[in-house]
């Protein structure tokens, strides 16, 4: 190799290493120092404020009763002094009074409740210094404020933005990002409420939600929004969260005395009531069953609650009558439950707080109960379960029913079980026998919640408030142990494709065939060299800027790089417009390859199953299309992009070593099909274990394919048959039973979103993300046969489990690949070993024949 090439290779490696190191997720401080605290502020509160202000944008996960109100008010005071701009605190119902009281009586601060930007400006005009404003989430949700005027904001009980699909979440996340200093203050997040935590990180500007998704989570490719934290990333995830969020369970977590901060004893009382309306137990289809189970579906749970309503209300009244001097909160979820309770509460000193009341009435009643003016409060956790402090006069709560929403449940409990509650707390759970599974699930989540709090407390005690010690944990090793498995005509390399290609001779590869990663949509392994481990498309293509030039250099002049891609889905929370759209990933790949010298010769379209795609993305739904067809686009095909490196001699445009074919063996008919832009696949590929267990095309699909082989296609008849199937309840919602196969002749489409896996893959592999778009055997075969000569070298920089190499040696070529994922690489080695033994691995067609 020439000396100049070695210099360039060393320079590339050095620059590439810098790029990889810059991927490391590091949380930086962007705030300011502060030490001017009111004497009434407790030490643990002052430390929390100092930490949050130094960070600039931080989350405060502080247990119930530790003083989040004081902390937010001290933060507001500091930010108004530092920035010279007002501060906005967003609050749930019933909390404004507490903030006003603590501000005036504990900290000596003046705060103002305001309703919109004009009211805010009117109040501010009466003061020379910036003021602290309080407002209700209802007002904030309407976009009634000009966020640009505020120097800081804080959102009390920050779970108001825990969901993606609410107007409040959209506004706060997308509009308040112009405010420099942003804070969230809430109790410890519920276990497995990962969307909530990622929303906090996104709102605070710590990390883009999509970046965190690809870094830490396995997403269910068959169901949108279903997140599972990778087991091998669990420790890293929580250490990362700890770097931008403080977790406080007690003052002793920061080294202070816990005097006055012992939680009261909690007694949970279980009350199972009979459902007298349910004489015969049936499922939702009317079939008689031995045991009813309200956990099977939302419909079953709702029906059980309706039928047992009066039995549960009477049980609640029985509990109240046994303790006539106690104050009670009765939590319920349904309006009919409230009305039934009110009918039984006549003559008692109670108030009901419900959704259609005016906000000032709700706040009056909530504050009245807090101050002991009413003995009983009837309300929903969704209304008063967050922020309100009722412990002064109340230590008893009744849940008129139970449900799946653990966050609402635990928040409601801690309205009375909190620090400075001096009585034992009694929680009464009323349920029916059909809700036992729901109860068990609630108890499981409660246990997980306690375990997570303990875990965060240990991290807090270990690292304190200085998160710099966390950084080394977050810096995963970038060193890769290169491995190689070789046999006759093949070589499988475990390494970074950029590094591996940089060490190869120029013009030494005759054909590239590869399915490219889809930008930052999926992270395939924990190493930062993973192309999926990037923050957005721009960073992904920056990494491509290291790879594609090496592909160009090592490809023989005049030869082809065949790249398999698919356009990416961009969900409404990503594009900010409220509907799902597409990213032209195909076009971006084309531009990147052209940027580095390749020319686009053509592209083949590989049609996919629109029903399966909708189940992955929810963007093509029949129901939504019925409401407004303008929201629905079209199914996204796969593309095989054909790029060419110019030959040395461009006078006749032939490759330096042409790919020649005998007309006797390569027919005119074959040429016409190969040249066509539409390529269809028979779907043949390596079979994963789940398919071995459940694969069954069914009689309907077989009949339909046989019918179309011998009959002309008629669209209206096709629609009619699908409608008839739907009317019989036999039209699947998860795949197309009657796909438009007519133009395929004897071929069959199989669009499987799962990553290809070997039969002997270890159980640990299930924890890894699945590939969303595997490349089928016949697509690889047609590409190899069309664009290479026998005996030539085919290379795949993203080898996966070895499909390209396997097909290359099967077709009389040589195959090489690089793969970063150690387990994927091991799987590819196993497949090639089995190829040496006549490919004993069962494939899709082996079991479907």
Automatic annotation (TrEMBL):
GO terms for molecular function: DNA binding; N-methyltransferase activity. SUPFAM superfamilies: P-loop containing nucleoside triphosphate hydrolases, S-adenosyl-L-methionine-dependent methyltransferases. GO terms for biological process: methylation. Keywords: Methyltransferase, Transferase. Transmembrane segments: none annotated. Residues 509-821 form the DNA methylase N-4/N-6 domain. It comes from the Bacteria. InterPro entries: DNA_methylase_N4/N6 (IPR002941), Helicase_C-like (IPR001650), P-loop_NTPase (IPR027417), SAM-dependent_MTases_sf (IPR029063), SNF2-like_sf (IPR038718). Residues 314-419 form the Helicase C-terminal domain. This is DNA methylase N-4/N-6 domain protein. It comes from Cyclobacterium marinum (strain ATCC 25205 / DSM 745 / LMG 13164 / NCIMB 1802) (Flectobacillus marinus).
């Amino acid at each position: 190799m020439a000396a100049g090439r070695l210099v360039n290779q060393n320079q590339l490696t050095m620059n590439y290493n810098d790029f990889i190191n810059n991927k490391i997720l590091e949380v930086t401080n962007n705030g300011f120092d502060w030490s001017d605290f009111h004497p009434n502020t407790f030490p643990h509160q002052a430390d929390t404020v100092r930490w949050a202000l130094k960070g600039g944008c931080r989350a405060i996960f502080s247990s119930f009763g530790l003083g989040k109100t004081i902390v937010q008010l001290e933060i507001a005071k500091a930010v108004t002094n530092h920035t010279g701009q007002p501060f906005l605190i967003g609050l749930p119902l019933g909390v404004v009074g507490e903030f006003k009281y603590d501000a005036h009586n504990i900290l000596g601060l003046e705060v103002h409740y305001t309703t919109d930007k004009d009211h805010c400006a009117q109040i501010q005009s009466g003061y020379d210094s910036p003021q602290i404003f309080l407002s209700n989430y209802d007002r904030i949700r309407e976009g009634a404020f000009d966020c640009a005027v505020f120097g800081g904001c804080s959102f009390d009980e920050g779970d108001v933005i825990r969901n993606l699909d609410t107007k409040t979440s959209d506004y706060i996340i997308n509009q308040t990002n112009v405010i420099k200093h942003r804070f969230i203050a809430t109790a410890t997040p519920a276990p497995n409420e990962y969307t909530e935590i990622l929303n906090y990180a996104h709102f605070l500007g710590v990390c883009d939600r999509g970046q965190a998704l690809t870094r830490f989570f396995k997403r269910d490719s068959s169901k949108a929004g279903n997140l599972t934290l990778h087991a091998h990333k669990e420790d890293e995830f929580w250490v990362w969260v700890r770097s931008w969020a403080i977790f406080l369970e007690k003052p002793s977590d920061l080294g202070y005395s816990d005097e006055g901060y012992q939680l009261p004893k909690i007694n949970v009382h279980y009350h199972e009531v009979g459902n007298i309306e349910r004489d015969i137990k049936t499922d939702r289809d009317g079939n008689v069953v031995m045991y009813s189970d309200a956990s099977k579906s939302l419909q079953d749970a709702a029906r059980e609650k309706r039928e047992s309503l009066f039995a549960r209300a009477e049980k609640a009244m029985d509990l109240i009558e046994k303790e006539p001097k106690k104050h009670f909160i009765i939590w319920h979820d349904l309006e009919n439950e409230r009305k039934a309770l009110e009918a039984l509460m006549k003559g008692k000193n109670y108030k009901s707080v419900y959704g259609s009341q005016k906000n000032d009435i709700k706040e009056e009643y909530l504050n009245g109960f807090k101050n002991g003016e009413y003995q009983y409060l009837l309300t929903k956790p969704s209304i008063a379960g967050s922020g309100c402090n009722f412990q002064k006069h109340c230590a008893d709560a009744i849940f008129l029913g139970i449900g799946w929403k653990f966050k609402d449940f635990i928040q409601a409990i801690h309205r009375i079980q909190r620090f400075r509650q001096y009585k034992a707390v009694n929680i009464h759970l009323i349920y029916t026998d059909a809700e036992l599974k729901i109860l068990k699930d609630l108890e499981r989540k409660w246990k997980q919640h306690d375990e997570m709090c303990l875990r965060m407390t240990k991290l807090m005690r270990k690292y304190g408030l200085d998160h710099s010690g966390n950084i080394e944990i977050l810096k995963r090793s970038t060193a890769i142990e290169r491995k190689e498995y070789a046999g006759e005509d093949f070589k499988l390399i475990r390494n970074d494709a950029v590094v591996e290609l940089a060490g190869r001779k120029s013009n030494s590869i005759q054909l590239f065939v590869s399915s490219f990663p889809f930008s930052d949509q999926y992270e395939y392994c924990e190493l930062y060299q993973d192309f999926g481990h990037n923050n957005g498309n721009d960073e992904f293509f920056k990494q491509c800027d290291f790879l594609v030039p090496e592909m160009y250099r090592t490809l023989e002049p005049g030869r082809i790089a065949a790249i398999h891609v698919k356009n990416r889905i961009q969900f409404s929370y990503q594009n900010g417009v409220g509907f799902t759209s597409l990213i032209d990933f195909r076009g971006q790949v084309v531009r990147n390859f052209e940027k580095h010298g390749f020319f686009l010769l053509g592209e083949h379209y590989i049609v996919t199953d629109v029903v399966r795609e909708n189940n992955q993305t929810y963007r093509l739904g029949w129901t939504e299309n019925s409401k407004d067809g303008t929201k629905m686009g079209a199914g996204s095909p796969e593309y095989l992009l054909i790029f060419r490196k110019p030959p040395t001699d461009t006078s006749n445009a032939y490759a330096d070593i042409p790919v020649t074919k005998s007309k006797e063996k390569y027919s005119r008919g074959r040429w016409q099909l190969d040249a066509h832009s539409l390529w269809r696949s028979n779907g043949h590929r390596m079979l994963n274990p789940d398919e071995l267990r459940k694969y069954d095309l069914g009689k309907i699909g077989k009949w339909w394919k046989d019918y179309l082989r011998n009959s002309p296609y008629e669209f209206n008849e096709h629609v009619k048959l699908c409608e008839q199937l739907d009317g019989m309840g036999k039209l699947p919602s998860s795949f197309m039973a009657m796909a438009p196969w007519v133009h395929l002749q004897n071929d069959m489409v199989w669009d499987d979103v799962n990553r290809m896996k070997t039969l002997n893959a270890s159980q640990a592999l299930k924890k890894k993300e699945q590939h969303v778009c595997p490349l089928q055997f016949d697509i690889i075969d047609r590409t190899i046969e069309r664009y290479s000569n026998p005996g030539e070298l085919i290379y795949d920089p993203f080898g996966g489990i070895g499909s390209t190499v396997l097909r290359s040696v099967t077709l009389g070529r040589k195959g090489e690949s690089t793969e970063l994922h150690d387990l994927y690489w091991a799987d590819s080695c196993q497949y090639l070993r089995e190829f040496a033994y006549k490919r004993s691995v069962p494939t899709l067609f082996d079991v479907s024949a």
